[in-house]
Structure formats: structure tokens, C-alpha cells
Amino acid sequence: MSDAPTPSLGLSPLSRVRLDELLQEMQNRVGDIVTSRERLRALLDAVVGIGTDLDLRSTLQRIVEAACALAGARFGALGVLAPGHDHLSDFVTHGIPPAAHARIGDLPHGRGVLGLLITDPYPVRLPDITRHPHSYGFPPNHPPMHSFLGVPVRTREQIFGNLYLAEKKGAAEFSEDDEEIVVALAAAAGVAIDNARLYEVAQRRQRWLEAAAEITGVLLGTVRRTEALRLIARRAREVAGAELVLVLLHDEENARFTIEVADGADPSCAGMAGRIVGGDFSVLLGGPPYQVLDDLRSAAEWPGPVPAGPALAAPLAGRDMPQGVLIVSQRSDLIADDAILLSTFAGQAALALERARAQEERELLAVLEDRERIARDLHDVVIQRLFATGMQLQAAAAPQAVRPDVAKRINAAVDELDATIRDIRRSIFELRAPIGATFRNELRDTVDDAAATLGFRPDLETSGPVESAVPDDIVPELTAVLREALSNVARHAHATDVRVSVRVAGGELILMVEDNGTGMDPALARGGVVNMAERAGDLGGTFEAGPRTDGSGTLVTWRVPLGTFDS
């Protein structure tokens, strides 16, 4: 087979060269178009991919991964700006293994070249980041990086953060096409981030509303002040994702604040309940619905551990005046979202206080009405019957009617009736006396007085008919024992929690004082402890002091009989 000459198509050698060049250029342009179409398709896939989930953290991670894939970067990161836009508050990375991440240590704060996009939010493309005059250097154990591309991410015309890419694969630096496609991705990422943030805010608001509905249901029933405030604090911490929630109550008479409830991630914070805060929060009482504390730890002298960082404070606005403050430690980026809803929660806490006070007033009014009814019945019915009986007996005791010994016995009975009438009249006077001098008030005053030496207010619980069943001669004995027990705790126990229980049950008056302090040895009891035992013995009762059932702290039990009373 012979070689046949290739037809020239009538072209000269020079024309054939030009035609080859045109064909090569056309082929190159077709290749560029195919490559651009593939990158455009990849960009569209990335845009669709980053919007598949509304979880904010997952969205940020997918944005970084998509940027690395589109630009061919070995490493990528998305730095989230803090609210003040002066530093980075979060840093989502891709390409660095977790172990290497842990060795690097703290996340960057946005200094050096990374800070260029914070101060001047425009794309930055560098062939070697280490040679830039603003280069801050890398921390130990950080992988080497040279080529760099940075692009700002905007949401609603606000800078949300910056995309950082490093180490272009297969090339010395990132190209203009890389920059353009990452800028386009950043624009789409801003929309996806905004949607994720709106969804997160909506979810948080829903949780706040559900918690508020739960609290409202509690307030519709019988309200126990401390229990309601504990529920409010716990739900506020759960919904806000807070590290600590405090409910401070204002003591206007002594111009101080006491921690009523402390709910936190650290179990030791519960020991702050009942303690006095060394600081003045009065400025928060009459202010706006909420205020931002720049640093909770430095805002006051706290009786226990509190986290550093910002916090929200909302006054508990009562019927007549603010009653306290609700404080929630919070991340700075969530303060704006939670502030208004927290003020609503504070309103519910104030309502719980109002409801508890109203119930106490109703119970007190019922006691007063009952006492008035008893006094009226004693005066109008019992005394009159006793008086009439005495008159009949006196008439029957006439000397001419009975023997002298019988008359003497009748007159003695009349004297007893007179004494009984006097006792009943004294009881009527006491029943109609001001309620402020009640036994319960004496107990509260004793406990309140102990707060000054203990540094916190002990918990007080009363049960049974302590007002009506405890005789007057036992009241001073019990209050003296209570003062001595609390004084011993303050002097020796180093306790952070004290609980006082006074109850009437089974014909006995029982006082229990327990603390979580260092404990005591009953064999070494002397002084005040001996006096407490003698007071119980004088009244026919018993006294015990020793470790609590769990072996920690001290439990003091003082009990005396109440005669024929049966609860």
C-alpha cells in the first residue's frame, strides 16, 4: 500500500499553520467553557448542599467544606465575628484532623492577616501568607500554610464572618477564578446562614413560650414560693443554655439582696441559696425590662462560684415595688435574642412571688376570721353558760338548803368556774390580739436574725397546728433552743446549708435543726448543748444531737409533749 499525499485543500503552508492555531484556540476555549460549566455546576451543587439543613453549626461546616472543594484548597475555616466585630467568637475548620486541632490549642482571635478582613471586609488573595507584613505567625503544631484566599461572608448587609482558604492543591496560589467562585459561594452562604439563624431564633422562642406556658400552669394552682422560683430558674437555664441562673430577692429594710434560688451546671452553686450578696443591685430594680451585665463575676461579691462573661438581669416587678432580680449568664451572641423573652420570665417570677404572698395573706385572713369566730362563740355562748351555771350553784348553796360540807364543795366549784371564765376571757383577748406576734413570726424572726452570723438565711418549714397547739410556756423555751442551735452552727459547723423544721404531730412539738457542716461529737457536748437537753428534760421531753442519716453534718432534734393535745 503506497503512501498517498495529504490533500492540501488549496491552502498554502502558512495558511495551514494559521488554521491549526485557530483550531487549537477553539479547542482551548471549548475546554475553558466545559471547565467553567463544571465549576458552575459544582457551585450550584454546593449552594443547594449548604441549604439542606437549618442547623446553624452544620451549615457553617458545610460552607467550609464546599469552599475547599470549589477552590481546591487543602485547608479551610470560617471565622464568626463577635457582636462587636472586633474579634472572632467561633472558628469552624476543615482539613485539620481533631488530634492536630487539639495540639494547636486555642482558636485564633482574628489578629494578623486574619484580621485584615475584619478591619477591611474585602477579598484578600496572597501567594504566601508568611511574607505578608501583617503576618502574625502560626502557633506551635500548626500545619505549614502559604497560599491564602480570604472572603467576607455577609448576612443582610452585615458581616457575619470570613471564609479563609489555604494551600491551593496543584498550584502555587489561588487564581482569580478561585476568588470569584468563592465570592459567589459566600453570597449564597450568607443567605443560608441567615435562614439557619432565623430558624434557630424561632426554635428558641418556641422553647421559651413552652416553658412560659408550663410556668403559667404552675401559677394557676397552689404556689409555693421557693418551689415556683426553682422551676422558673431551672427552665430559664435549660432554654437559654445558660451556665447559671440566680433569683435575688430584695430586703428593703436592710438594703441588701439575698439569693433565693441558684440553678447552675456546677452542683456547688446550690449552696449559694439563702446567702447574702455583697453588692448593690438597686439600680436594676427601677430600670428597663432588662439590662446587660458585661461581666457577671465582677458585678458583685458572690458567696460562691459564678461564671465570668456577660449576663442578662431583669427586675422582678411586683405590685407595689420591684421585689428582686432574675440573672441569667449568657453567651454574648444570644443576648439580643433572649433579652425580651427573659423579661417575660422575670414577670412570671414576680407573679409567683405575688401569688405566694396573696395566698399567705388569704391563709392569714382565714386564721383571723377563725380566731374571731372562736372568740365570739366563747364570749357569747361558753362564758354565758358557765356564768349561768355558777349562779345556779350559788343559789343552790344557800345555808338553809344544804349541809355545810355540801355548800363548801359547791362554793369551791363556783370558784373554779370563775377561774375558768377568767382564763377564757384571757384567751379571747389573745385571740383578738394582733397577728404579728404569732409563733410562726417568732420563728421567722429567729431564723432571719441568724442570717447575719451564718452569712445566709436558713430554710424554715412548719407543719401542723403550731399556732394553736403550742402552749405559751413552751414558746420561749423552743425559741431559746433554736437560737442556741443556730449559734452553734455559726460558730463551729462551717456549714453552707441549714434547715429548720418545727412541727406538731402525735401530741408532740418537734424541732429539728440540720446542717451540712463538719459535724460534732456528742460525747464532747457542753455549755449550750447541755442547756438545750435540760430545757427538754424540764418539759418532759428529749434531746438528741449527732450526725445526719447520711453520716454528714449534724442533726439536732428537740421534742416535748403537748399534754392531751392530739393532732
TrEMBL record:
Domain GAF: 55-203, 224-363
Species annotation: Actinoplanes lutulentus
Cross-referenced Gene3D superfamilies: 1.20.5.1930, 3.30.450.40, Histidine kinase-like ATPase, C-terminal domain
Residues annotated as domain Histidine kinase/HSP90-like ATPase: 473-564
Protein name: Histidine kinase/DNA gyrase B/HSP90-like ATPase
Keyword Transferase: yes
Gene Ontology terms: cellular component: membrane
Single GO MF descriptor: phosphorelay sensor kinase activity
UniProt cross-references to InterPro entries, sorted A to Z: GAF, GAF-like_dom_sf, HATPase_C_sf, HATPase_dom, Sensor_HK_TwoCompSys, Sig_transdc_His_kin_sub3_dim/P
Classification of source organism: Bacteria, Bacillati, Actinomycetota, Actinomycetes, Micromonosporales
Pfam families linked: GAF (PF01590), GAF_2 (PF13185), HATPase_c (PF02518), HisKA_3 (PF07730)
Record has Electron transport as a keyword: no
Keywords linked to the UniProt accession: Kinase, Transferase, Two-component regulatory system
Coiled-coil parts of chain: none
